[in-house]
Amino acid sequence: MSFDLWFLVLGGLLVAIALVASRVKHLPLTTTVLYLLVGIALGAFGTGAIRLDPLRHAGFLERVTELAVLVSLFTAGLKFRLPVRDPLWRLPIRLASVSMVVTVGLITLLGTFGLGLPLGAAVLLGAILAPTDPVLASDVQLSHAGDRNRLRFSLTGEAGLNDGTAFPFVMLGLGLLGEHELGVSGWRWLTVDVLWAIAAGLGTGFGLGTLVGKLVLFLRKEHKEAFGLDDFLALGLIGLSYGAALLIHSYGFLAVFAAGLALRRIERLSTPTEEPPDVREMAAAGSEEEIATDPEKAPAYMAQAVLGFNEQVERIFEVGVVLLVGGMLSWRFLPSAALWFIPILFLVVRPLAVLAGLAGARLPHLEKGMLAWFGIRGIGSIYYLMYAIEHGLDPALAEPLVGLTLTTIAASILIHGISVTPLMRLHEKRTES
Predict the structure, then answer these.
(1) What end-to-end distance do the CA atoms of the chain give, in Å?
(2) How far apart are CA 341 and CA 112, in angstroms?
(3) Which residue, among 137, 158, 183, 173, has the nearest Cα to 318 in the 3D structure?
(4) What burial letters (b/e) apply to 316-336, b meaning 16+ CB within 10 Å?
(5) How is the chain split among helix, strand and coil, in percent rounded to 5?
(6) Is the distance from CB of 234 to CB of 213 less than 8 angstroms?
(7) Which candidate, 310, 311, 309, 327, places its Cα nearest to that of 382?
(8) How far is 24 from 292, CA to CA, in rounded Å?
(9) Which of these, 221, 216, 120, lies nearest to 175 by C-alpha position?
(10) Which stretches of 25-141 are assigned E, i.e. beta strand?
(11) Tens-digit pLDDT profile for residues 307-336
């Protein structure tokens, strides 16, 4: 597709979505389903306007999806206002650790014995498809920073964390295929790729988020400076935390998520109320400069303004990437194995992994069932796949992994997108009663 045609399609789609967004909210589907259908119509199954080969254009797709995930992870971090010591955090941490490992293990078994993949490729497939998606799961995410809904909190936290905790298994899969150094008996993988990279990534992001946040507030409160460009602050902090984490060979995704958590923590410690003040209400009560530099209102204004900007950027990336997913679907990337693999992934692997991760947790059956169902796969999986291709994955192995990944994501967008509205309404009714 030519560059000018891309402008036409994206512009028309964005205007159309803006016009019908309120109507779509009443339908049993999400806007992401519409993006996918438009992408399919523009791809090999339709007009053929989108001609993007995931094998030949892996580098481009890696960067686009990388940016999309970074913005989404920072946005997710900003939505968490509860301190990490709060008991509510136990559920997403268990989902992003125990359930993650179980998912990778079960997919590895399916890949080895069901798909005939080498062990390294099967582990890699597990790492690609194990993380849930923070971009496409917006309809089951926390709706705002004061949201205490346990289901939304768990799914948002899991999606924010497991995009980083899946990385060690990507490196393990590449190592078993001879494309990454694992060390004797895997010692390097355990010490560097698991222990160091996870801890250093979280620490780097949290430290930089705290440092930058406090510096900005100091300048605003004490010198009436450093206000008016909160969008630059958001993008700058994402770039700082991600770049610093990569330089010390840790996981940048975890660093960006932790930076968002740190920025929200500064607001929470500075604001005595249970929920953060609304930026729009504050803006109506005075000028931007007065609010941004007010000792009491400045922390909440900073956090909410950055969150609002990030949410807008996140939606734009969602439109573009899902269009590409739909456009890349073709008969070449529709493996027959997907007919049995995807149902097993959604109906067996995900529920078993959630049950293992939440063993002993006292949750209502409906809530536990919804946690098991909403294992939405998406943009993070594409990033990991393209990362593996760019780091030497054999094309003979890359093609079946591309087919399974694209069909799984498309199926997840359709199935979960259609079921999310009625199921979330049912959950909210049960919660209220």
Answers:
(1) 51
(2) 12
(3) 137
(4) ebbbbbbbbbbbbbbeebebe
(5) 75, 0, 25
(6) no
(7) 327
(8) 35
(9) 120
(10) none
(11) 888 888 888 888 889 999 999 998 888 899
Q: Are 425 and 390 a contacting pair, CB within 8 Å?
A: no
CA-CA distance, 190 to 147, in Å (whole number)? Answer: 36
Dump pLDDT digits (tens) for 36-85. Answer: 998 999 888 888 888 889 999 999 999 999 999 999 999 989 889 888 88
Q: How far apart are CA 259 and CA 310, in angstroms?
A: 13
Cα–Cα distance measured from residue 81 to residue 61, given in angstroms and rounded to the nearest whole number: 33
Long-range contacts of 222-226 (CB under 8 A, 24+ apart): 224/289, 224/293
- Pairwise CA distance, residues 312 & 176, whole Å: 40
Give the DSSP H/E element, type plus range, for residue 169: helix 167-176
Which one-letter amino acid corresponds to residue 98?
V
Cα 172 to Cα 179: distance, rounded to the nearest angstrom: 9
C-alpha–C-alpha distance, residues 105 and 122, integer Å: 9
Phi/psi at 376 (5° precision)? -75, 125
Q: Which two tokens stand for residue 117?
A: 């993949």
3-state secondary structure of 287: coil
- As a whole number of angstroms, the distance between CA 170 and CA 391 comes to 11
The answer to whether 385 and 128 are in contact (CB under 8 A) is yes
Name which of 190, 200, 196 is nearest 254 in CA terms.
200
Amino acid at 368: K
Evaluate the CA torsion angle 82, 145, 156, 160 in order and state its sign: negative
